[in-house]
Design brief:
97 residues, 0% strand, mainly alpha
Length: 97
Amino acid sequence: MFPGLSNSKQRDSLTTLGRKMVKELFKVAKNGDIEKLRELFEDPESIFSTDPAQALNKRDRDGKSALDIAAMLGRKEIVRELLERGAQVNSQTKKGT
């Protein structure tokens, strides 16, 4: 459902493991799995521990972030957690929404 990230330069700056973890973040946001989200941030080896702002604000091909996905699906707990961890609230998709 979230086959890739939007910016090739940003994609290149992430390791393979980092890209997998960002895809996992989108999956967690979609499914509303708050415990899994917290696990991602607690893993000292994860990109969410080493560079949370970069990971949190990645976008899919439509320009949506994990925060956008969670908000559209009404995943309030996920939205709250993402915001507390530094997700950008005023960002826009490619369509400007």
